[in-house]
Write a structure and sequence with these properties.
Elements lengths: L1 H6 L8 H68 L2 H126 L2 H35 L10 H12 L5 E4 L6 E4 L2
Helix pairs in contact: 3-4, 3-5, 4-5
Keywords: Coiled coil
């Protein structure tokens, strides 16, 4: 249907015969390769069998040749021993005994060397086992140290984060302290302005006291009351600012100059007219010159 036609490649959509030919060619190529591989395997197997047969034949021939050489060497000795009489037999036995003693000594020496070699091998095996145990201990210790190192690394990272946060907090506190110092300077300026206004009011009151009547004195009293209220508000603001600084950074308030207290005290002292005392019975003003 349409689904199969859509699934076919574009170049071969109209040529199913070409697809079959390509498939047949691919099968022939695979068959040829398979036949070549089988032929190569058979050749290798045949070569291995031939080499094995040749080795067996050569081994048998070598054994037979060695046996023939041994028989050629032994036959004259046996003839001489058996046909030479009793004296020759004793001589042969004595020579054989000496040779056997030498062989036994060599064998004993070899056995001693083998025993020492076994002992040394046992010691080496024991040392190897001990070294393996030490290696396992060191590996476990290394793993423990690695775990501790990871813990210390995480702890150092946490401490770095806390240090960064504390530095940010210190910078924020410094900014707030600078803002409070600026606010304190502003309050000092306000206090100085209030002091100037109080001085001007005192001068105006002194002038008005000399040339004004009682209604004008009442107005001046109202002005003085306003000035006193304003000075009191400024003092309250100064106290609040200092309390805020003390609550934010304990111990930092000592770094701010004591000019704030001095300015406030001077403003309070100067708020009273020098040489005058005020008696306010009701709304009446009576100023008497102190001497």
């Amino acid at each position: 249907g349409k689904g199969l036609a859509d699934r076919q490649p574009r170049g071969l959509s109209g040529a199913p015969g070409m697809m079959e030919m390509a498939h047949a060619g691919l099968l022939e190529h695979v068959k040829d390769q398979n036949y070549g591989l089988r032929l190569r395997c058979l050749r290798q197997m045949r070569g291995a069998v031939l080499i094995g047969a040749m080795r067996c034949s050569f081994g048998a021939w070598s054994g037979l040749s060695a046996r023939r050489r041994l028989l050629r060497e032994v036959i004259p000795f046996c003839k001489q021993t058996l046909l030479g009489g009793a004296r020759e037999l004793l001589k042969t036995c004595l020579c054989g005994w000496h040779r056997i003693i030498e062989v036994l000594l060599d064998d004993k020496h070899l056995r001693n060397e083998l025993e020492s070699h076994r002992d040394g091998r046992g010691r080496l095996i024991q040392q190897h086992q001990e070294l393996e145990a030490e290696l396992a201990t060191e590996q476990s210790r290394t793993q423990e140290l690695h775990v501790k190192y990871q813990e210390l690394t995480s702890h150092c990272r946490a401490l770095e984060g806390q240090l960064r946060q504390s530095q940010d907090g210190a910078a924020e506190l410094e900014r707030q302290l600078a803002a409070q110092a600026q606010r304190t300077q502003t309050l000092e300026l306000h206090a100085q302005q209030a002091e100037e206004e109080a001085r001007e009011l005192r001068e105006a009151l002194h002038l008005a006291e000399q040339a004004a009547e009682r209604p004008k004195g009442a107005k001046l009293e109202v002005l003085l009351r306003q000035r006193d209220e304003r000075i009191g508000a400024l003092e309250v603001e100064l106290v609040k600012a200092r309390a805020t600084i003390d609550s934010m950074v304990p111990g930092v308030a000592g770094a701010i100059p004591l000019a704030v207290d001095v300015a406030a005290a001077s403003a309070v002292r100067r708020s009273e007219p020098t040489g005058w005392s005020w008696n306010l019975p009701g709304t009446e003003l009576a100023g008497e010159r102190k001497k």
